[in-house]
Amino acid sequence: MQIGGSFFKIILLVVAFALLVLLAALFPGFFDEIAKNPETPNIPYFIFRTMLRMTAAYFLTVAFGLSYGIIAGLYEKPRRVMIPLLDILQSIPVLGFLPAAILFFINLFPGQLGVEIASVILIFTGQAWAVAFGVYGAVRSIPEDLANAARAFGLTGFKYLRKLLLPFIFPSFITGSILAWGGGWYFLVACEFMTFGGMLYTLPGVGYYLANAVYVQQNIPSALFGLGVFILLVLVINKLIWAPLLEYSDKFKVQTLGGEEVSRARPSLLATLLELFFEKLDDLVEFLSERYSQKIPKIPTVRIELQKPEVVLDPRRMALRQLVIFSFLFLITMYFLGLFVAASLQKPLEDLQLSLKTHPEAYLIPYFALRSMFRIFVAYLIALAWTLAAGVIITRNKFLSNIFLPIFDIGQSVPALALFPFIMIIVFKYVGTGSIGLELASILLLLTGSQWYLLFNIIGAIKRIPKDITEAASSFGIKDWKFVRYIILPAIFPGIIVGSIQAWGGAWNATIVSEYINYGGYVQFEANYSGVELNSITAVVGEKVSRIDCFGGKCSGMLEVSGVGNHNASLIFHSSSGELQLPISFAVGDVGSAPENNTAITIPASSGYITLLTPVNGSSPLHPYSVTGLGAFINKATAEWGDPWLITIAIATMSLTVILLNHFVWGYLFMKAERYKFEMT
Amino acid sequence: MPLLSVRHVSKSFTKNGEKIRVLNSITFDVQPHEFVCILGQSGCGKSTLLRIIAGLEKPTSGEVLFNGEPIQGPDPKRATMIFQTFALLPWLTVRENIELGMEAIGIPKIKRHAIASHYIKLCELEGFENAYPPELSGGMKQRVGIARALAVEPEILLMDEPFSSLDALTAQTLREDVLEIWRDTSIPTNTILMITHLIQEAVFMADRVIVLSKRPAKVVGDIPIDLPRPRVNYERHPVFFEICDRIEKLIRE
Questions:
Q1: Exposure winner among A168, A322, A577, B97, fewest CB in 10 A?
Q2: Tell me, what's the ipTM?
Q3: A634-657: average pLDDT
Q4: Given an 8 Å threshold on Cβ–Cβ distance, is A475 in contact with B80?
Q5: What are the chain A neighbours of B133 within 8 Å (beta carbons)?
Q6: Contact, B218 vs B26, CB < 8 A?
Q7: A472 CA to chain B: closest CA distance, Å?
Q8: How many domains does the structure of chain A reveal?
Q9: pTM reported for the whole predicted model
Q10: How many CB atoms lie within 10 A of CB A282?
Q11: pLDDT at B120 over 90
């Protein structure tokens, strides 16, 4: 992670601005389109709401992460349950719960409040694990000397927390927070624009502006503008909040022997304010404790059994026996989650038999899981290939690294979900919406949700190769390909494994949004006719042309649409006696019930009747573009069938797949990687 | 003709926009078969000087001549290096670490194996061939470092504070072993240039001690050590301390 500005970043911004001006010059309508968008004037308000949402979720994360991490780190008994539980919780693809969670909270708190609470909680579930694990790892790695010294000077209870523990974990807390905040951006877009059950749930925010511009208004300039605002917001927060905090946290890093010299920079305004705040807080606590010293219950003295610093991400922390126990625990958890889902869908969670009978696809869930896994694997290979090449080339060339690192830094700060609409538009336009186009779009979407983990772990690992090792290698004449093969690749192996674990986690989550693409899809079209002889109907919706066959008084087929919302279509009726063109307009919800009202149309040329059944003058059910996979299945089970059992089983399958893969594949490789780590002297 | 000739080597680099001068026109020679120590306080730039001699860094001005020819980048046949932190690859066994340098210069596999076996024996590493570095003690690790550097049979061996991260007893044993290897005429490497900040270590080991001043470093003394070898017997001799005192004075000035 490289947060903070550089000269090149400024240049990049200037270039981006110049591009914008160029765009405006080339396409005169560009800014008009943005100005025409009725939502554009609301952008300051959207930024405010988005920030409020993020901040609320972050405060939940801090409260949860700090208490969970500290308790699990300090006390042996709770740790035995808390850490495996955390492992399971963070393996669950959070996005899978999005639809069910929204329904649940809407039922509890009708209207926008429910959606808002659901979104804050979902963003929180996307953030919480990074902070909890970071804090936990730091608490567990307090050096024995330091803890003993603190105890020898009589720091116990609250004072121990305030004077040793909290400052010591501060750097990990900040890096965990930065990761969490990035995760929050990712989920934010999904939360602000939700299409589900024929309904569009939106929350005012920057993500909404962007998604609305693409899906509903089909206003690409506005969407680009929204993306720009979004990226700028992410960068500004990084620059104003996280970069100074990260720098400030260096102060709390415990020097190991032979460590590098730390150059102390001028403290930032934020750091100064923070110090002042803590100073005043200390004064207050001291004042209060003097006054009410008898009334404050004493925090029991914490006895820490100190161990070797623990690797936090080790997927094999759980022994196999524990894994079995927790798989069982996990299934019980999943049952309750099922109850939760059932409650939110207001459907009974009783008849599994019936669910399987109505949707026999459910028997194919393992196959769907394999298909998703294969798709992730392809995306992973692509990501690994380019990030390895880029990592090696960039870190060995100062000029290239000056150019590309800021680009990558911005690239990874763009929440992948915000890029989805653009990727879809481009792929669908140039490759089409056939199965190749959909698979390609899906893999590209997975890529955006996973590649940065690999890239930044690889770059970090290359940078951490001790200088002595590279010097030794070059003094022995090891260079070029041999240097890559014998030094760099083995040296970054542990980094690749860590990056892979994170990338696969991100990719599983992304399957939910990449295998079932709400951008457009197919609408069932039906019409009856009499008195005329119709061969077929050609339906033109935007750029999409669909052919509907007619036979024996009935026409039926699928009508392809892009986007959601209102559509103007043109129907061309082909009969042996001639053609007739007819404009219709209809609305497409994500999914919904078929409209009841039928419209009869008279064709004068051959004096017959045509009755359009669907779609017409109302909301029409949409079957979004989807590929075969577990993510698509979860979506269908939630949005199209509303079946609590199938949702629960599918999410359970995905979580279990993640846990098993982590344990057997990544855990094995992680152990292998142990040998490749450099010793700290 | 000297084997190695350092001519007016200066080095400066910029840090935080500030130009820092590290080496100030360093000049000295190393003759074949000589054991020379460069002595200076920590941070004086002696490591940078060694890296310039190894060809890992370029001097800002001046040049380094080897057999009368200016050096161009690192060349394992000319010089190899021993590091304070050992710089062993943790994923390779002791034997693989030693063979890696030979592989890089294209020595065939069978020959590589034989040479490695020879130096494993010479550096008393027998029985540890298949161990991985993290399984070894500090002293054993540095033995691997020495074997690796010698195995490519360079004309000069560069040592960057090779004993600084070892405990006192291990360091002393290893010093004596290095001196023994240096005097062993059966191996082709018999010129050593070592960097240290320990005066007694330099006086104990070197034929000549080149004393560097504080940053920017310049040569403030080039002192021949005429004590007879082996010097184990002279370590408590007044002459030994006399030389040490003289050097200390030079450094402190």
A1: A577
A2: 0.85
A3: 83
A4: yes
A5: 679
A6: yes
A7: 7
A8: 3
A9: 0.81
A10: 12
A11: yes
